[in-house]
Amino acid sequence: MAAARVTPIGVLLSGRGSNFLALQAAIERAELPARIAVVISNVADAPGLVRARELGLAARALPHGESASREAHDQRMLDALAEAGAEWVCLAGYMRLLSARFVAGYAPRILNIHPSLLPAFPGLHAQRQALAAGVRVAGCTVHLVDEGLDSGPIVVQRAVPVLDDDTEETLAARILVEEHRAYPEALRRLLVEPWAIEGRRLRFGA
Ligand code: GAR
């Protein structure tokens, strides 16, 4: 049997990087026909970037403050991604909006993970928003990225219960467990299955 094609991906992150590590772990378990070609962070000392270096991955710090505009910063990232040969971009806790130029450069091959059942609770502090709204079910969403904030066709969602004694921290921790399952699952399906976008829907199947 022919080996599955290994797709080079670029990861953008701003902080801890646990979703990046979940992708890397799935690759190491041979569950994901991909390789991380480069990890880029807009935060020079982001723990996720430090971990990428420890793992021997290509890691680039591109602090956004060094660029005059969002467009200029995003162009630096596009150049770094192109240099690494990345065919897909995975946002893993990348806490900045992408410019239209960046999205145009990679769409539809940009994925994001967000800690809510979108379209509920986009933006910052999604878990806090869920608690404030009193919902009984929360979760995470992996979606293709468009120019909007946490919008774009949904690939995978996973739900968790909200418990009466939940705090933002306990709810975030319960959701994070599902994030680490959902992200590799979503990327794997996109890489190995046929899919198409119809309106706001992503449909798997030929
Ligand atoms: C994750 O919970 C992710 O869903 C969220 O940031 C966290 C990053 O954690 N992303 C967003 O809120 C994007 N709107 P990580 O650095 O450990 O992967």
Q: What ligands are attached or bound here?
A: glycinamide ribonucleotide
The largest sheet, given as strand count, sense and whether it forms a barrel, is: 7 strands, mixed
Major sheet: order of its strands? 3-2-1-4-5-6-7
When the domains are counted, the total is 1
Total number of beta strands: 9
Q: Identify the CATH homologous superfamily.
A: Formyl transferase, N-terminal domain
What overall form do the CA principal axes indicate? globular
Task: Count helical runs.
Answer: 6
Provide the CATH topology: Rossmann fold
| Gap between N and C termini | 22 Å
Mean pLDDT: 96
Q: Please state the second-level CATH architecture.
A: 3-Layer(aba) Sandwich
Rg: 17 Å
In the CATH scheme, the class would be: Alpha Beta
Class inferred from helices and paired strands: alpha/beta
Helix content: 25-40%
Order of helices and strands: EHEHEHEHEHEEHEE
Flag low-confidence runs.
none
Question: How does this structure look, described?
Answer:
This protein is an alpha/beta fold and 206 residues long. It has a single domain (7-195), classed as Formyl transferase, N-terminal domain (Rossmann fold, 3-Layer(aba) Sandwich). It contains six helices and nine strands, in the order E-H-E-H-E-H-E-H-E-H-E-E-H-E-E. The protein has helices at 18-28, 47-54, 70-84, 100-106, 126-133, 168-192; strands at 7-13, 34-41, 59-61, 88-91, 110-114, 137-144, 154-161, 195-198, 201-204. The chain has a seven-stranded mixed β-sheet with strand order 3-2-1-4-5-6-7, sandwiched between helices. Strand 8 and strand 9 form a beta hairpin. Helix 1 crosses helix 6 and helix 3 (70-84) runs parallel beside helix 4. The chain is globular. The two termini are 22 Å apart.
